[in-house]
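Deliverable D2.4 — example input (structure tokens):
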């Protein structure tokens, strides 16, 4: 992830501290445990986001992680739990990705093995590619 994107994130979190996880320092072992739990190696930019920020609301989007941000609530903040949730409900694409976010209508947003960020829209019954990678997703969708 480039320095400009990290700076934008840090500025947002400085201005609105409740949108970022309070305890952000995520250990490498925790990330590896989460990767095993979801069955994927995390995209490098998402991994860096986890290490630096833990989890957060970025713009209007929750970015699920390994730490809870105050504004995210008690049951919708963990990348592992949200991935399990959508897999248990048999959402298309949930078995082929790890769920990092959700849109305002309850549609899961995941990162796939090719790095693309996609959403499955339950109304149109389509998989929609939102970006070619996590950083682009943040810049294009969240940090407008």
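Example output (designed residues):
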């Amino acid at each position: 992830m480039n320095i400009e994107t990290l700076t934008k994130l840090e500025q947002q979190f400085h201005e609105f501290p409740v949108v970022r996880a309070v305890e952000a320092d995520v250990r490498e072992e925790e990330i590896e445990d989460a990767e095993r739990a979801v069955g994927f190696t995390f995209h490098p930019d998402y991994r860096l986001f986890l290490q630096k920020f833990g989890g957060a609301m970025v713009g209007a989007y929750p970015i699920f992680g390994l730490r809870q941000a105050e504004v995210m609530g008690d049951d919708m903040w963990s990348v592992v739990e949200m991935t399990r949730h959508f897999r248990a409900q048999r959402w298309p694409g949930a078995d082929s990705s790890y769920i990092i976010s959700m849109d305002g209508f309850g549609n899961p947003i995941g990162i796939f093995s090719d790095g693309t960020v996609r959403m499955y829209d339950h109304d149109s019954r389509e998989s929609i590619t939102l970006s070619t990678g996590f950083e682009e997703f943040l810049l294009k969708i969240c940090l407008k």
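Strands lie at 56-58, 61-63, 97-102, 108-112, 117-121, 126-131.
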